Amino acid sequence: MIKFSFATGSDTTVKVMNSVNNQMYSFYFYRQPTGVVFDPNNEIVIKTASLVVGINENEGQIPANYELKQNYPNPFNPVTNIDYSIPKNSEVKLTVYDMTGKEVSVLVSEFKQAGRYTVSFNAVKKASGVYYYKLQAGDFTEVKKMILVK
Question: Residue 3: which residues within 8 A CB-CB, separation 6 or more?
Answer without folding.
Answer: 11, 12, 13, 14, 35, 36, 37, 40
